[in-house]
Amino acid sequence: MLLSGPFRKEMSAGFRLTTNNRMELMAVCVALEALKFAGSDVVVYSDSKYVVDAVTKGWVFGWEKKGFAGKKNPDLWRRFLGVYRHHRVRFVWVKGHAETVENNRCDQMAVAAANGRDLLVDTGYEGSSGDGFFEQNVRRRRKIVNLAETNFNHLSTPMYRSFGIFGLSAALFVAAASCSRMQSFELSGRIDGLKVGDTLRFERVLLPEWNYEPAFDVVVGEAGAFAYRGEQAHDGYYLMTYHPKSGRAADADRRGKSMIVTGGDRITLTGTAEAIYYCTLGGGIYDDLALSELLYVADSLGRIRSGYSENARAAFARGDQAEGRRWNELFNRFYADDPGAARKRALNENYRKGHPQGTLYLLVDRIPTVAYRPLAESRAFYESLSEELKSSYFGGVYADFLRQMESLAVGQSAPDFSLVTTRGETIAKADFAGGYVLFYHWGLCPGSIRIDGQVRDLYAAYKDRGLRMVGLTESVDMIRRVYEGLPDDESAAGMRSALAGMLAHGWPEIEVETDRPENGRMLERYAIEGWPAFVLIAPDGTIAARGYTEAFFSVKEILAGALGGTHPE
C-alpha cells in the first residue's frame, strides 16, 4: 500500500518459496527502485524489526564494511543500499496486528494473495546454497507482495509522480511526503601535508541518535589538496575522518571534522594534515563572521586539549605513570579550568542572541540536546525558529524528536518492551505491573563510574521494599575483559575497584549491542543517548522519572516517599 494525501493504490502478488525477512526487505527495495525522481522524501512504516532496526541502528552499514560476512540476505541488502542512498528515507516501526489501519489492510491483502496461483520465484532464495534456506525450519512458504502507486502534491504546483512499493507478508506501507531533485554540492581543500593516496572518509551523521552511515570517500590525487563534487537528497551533516596511506593521523579531542552542507554549497577546508580536524571551514553557512569566530575559538581549544592527550600518551608509553595521570587530569578538567572555555561559552551565547529566529547551525547543534533539556525549553526553541528552518529537513528531525520526548514525559505511559537478559530470561513491561522498576543505562564512562556505587546502595536499600531493577549496557563481557586487562598495581587500583563493583551488580542485565533487536530498541524507545541514564516506571505503568544523572536524585526522592524509610546518601 502506498499513500500520499488522498491518493492510494494497492496491488498484490506472491512468492512460492522464500522467508519472512527476505520479503520484508524486498518490499523496501522494490519501493525505492520504483521512484521516478531522485531525492524523494519517503517514510516507510513496517512491522519488521529485522529491516527497521538494521537501518535505524546503523547495523547494515557495518555489515556492508565487512562484506556481509556471515549475514543473511546479502543480495537484498546490497540492492537496498544501492537505491536507499538516492532518497531521503525514514523508517518507522509499527506493531503488527494492532490498531494501524493500513497495516491491517496489508495483512488482508496478504492472506488473499497467499491463496492465489502463479506464485513468483525468489531466485535469490531458491538459488541459494543455504543462505537462510531453512529459516524457521519451513521449506515451502507463500509470501505476499502489495504494490501501490501515489502522487506527490506537496509542491506549490501539483505534479503527478508515481512510484510502486511491494509490501510483503507482514505488511508494509509507505507514505511519501514530498519529492525534490537531488542537491549538488562541492567540497575542496588546501591541506598542507596531505599526500597522494591519502583518504578522506565522509560519513553522514544521523540525528538524533548520532549514528553514522558511509557517504563517500575522497582519495587525494594531488599533494596538499582535494576536491569532490556530489549530490544529496537533503541538507547533510557530515563527519570527515583522515586516513593516511601510511602511518596514522595525529590524536585529537574529537572523532573527526563535522560540517553542515546545504544544496549548492561550495565548502572549503584550509589547514594542515597534522591538525586536520581543526581546519577552517568556508562557504555555505560558514560565511558568517560570528560563526567563524566561534568555531575558531572552539578549534583552538580543541588543539590545546589534544596536546594534553598526546602528552599523557607519551608519558604512559615511557612508563611515567604519575606524569601520564597528571596530563589526563588536565585533559579532563580542561573545559572547566581554561579561561578560553569561558570565552567560547560567551561567543556561543552572543551568536544565539544575534539570531533570535535561529540558524541551521544552531538547529543542528540543538537536536541531540532535546533528550535531556526541559521540554518547555525545547518547545520554546522550536517555536522561535523561522518558518524556513521549521520546514527544513533538520527542522523535521527536531520536531519528530520533540514529539517523542513529549511522549516520554513524566506521567506518560511507559512504552512496551520485551527483553532478554544475559541469563536468557525474557522480561516484559507486564512483569513489573504493580511495582516500581528502575532501568539503569551504564557503561565505561566517567559518569557511570562515579555514580555506580550510589546506584548499588539504592538497590540494596529498596530491593526488599518492592523495587525491581534492570541494567542496560553494551556488553558485560567487554567490561569484564577491560577489568581483567588492567595492570595489577596501584596505578589502576581505583579503576579495578570501580569495574569490580559494576561486574557484581545484583540485578538482571540487558546487553543492547547484541543480535537481539528488541534489546537495542529499548534505548530508542526511551530516547536514551548516553550514560548514566535512568528510567523509573511507576506501579501504574507510567514514567515516574527519566533522564541522566539528575534523574537519579529524583528517583531517590520518589522511592523514599513511596516505599518508606530514608534513601541512602
Record the SSE blueprint.
Layout: E1 2-4, E2 7-9, E3 12-15, H1 20-33, E4 40-46, H2 49-56, H3 59-65, H4 74-84, E5 88-93, H5 101-114, H6 123-126, E6 143-147, E7 166-167, E8 172-179, E9 183-192, E10 199-206, E11 211-219, E12 225-232, E13 236-243, E14 257-261, E15 266-272, E16 280-282, H7 289-317, H8 321-337, H9 339-353, H10 360-366, H11 375-384, H12 387-390, H13 393-407, E17 418-420, E18 426-428, E19 437-441, H14 446-462, E20 468-473, H15 476-484, H16 493-503, E21 509-511, H17 517-525, E22 533-537, E23 543-547, H18 549-563
Parallel strand pairs: 1-8, 4-5, 9-15, 19-20, 20-21
Antiparallel strand pairs: 1-2, 3-6, 4-8, 6-7, 9-12, 10-11, 10-13, 13-14, 15-16, 17-18, 19-22, 22-23
Helix pairs in contact: 1-4, 2-17, 7-8, 7-9, 8-9, 11-13, 14-16, 14-18, 15-16
Explained architecture:
With 569 residues, the chain is of the alpha+beta class. It has four domains: 2-179, 2-Layer Sandwich (Nucleotidyltransferase, domain 5); 183-345, no CATH class; 355-407, no CATH class; 418-563, Glutaredoxin, CATH 3.40.30. It contains 18 helices and 23 strands. Strands 2-1-8-4-5 form a five-stranded mixed sheet. β17 (418-420) and β18 (426-428) form a beta hairpin. α1 (20-33) runs parallel beside α4 (74-84), α7 packs antiparallel against α8 (321-337) and α15 runs antiparallel to α16. The protein starts with a strand and ends in a 6-residue tail after the last helix.
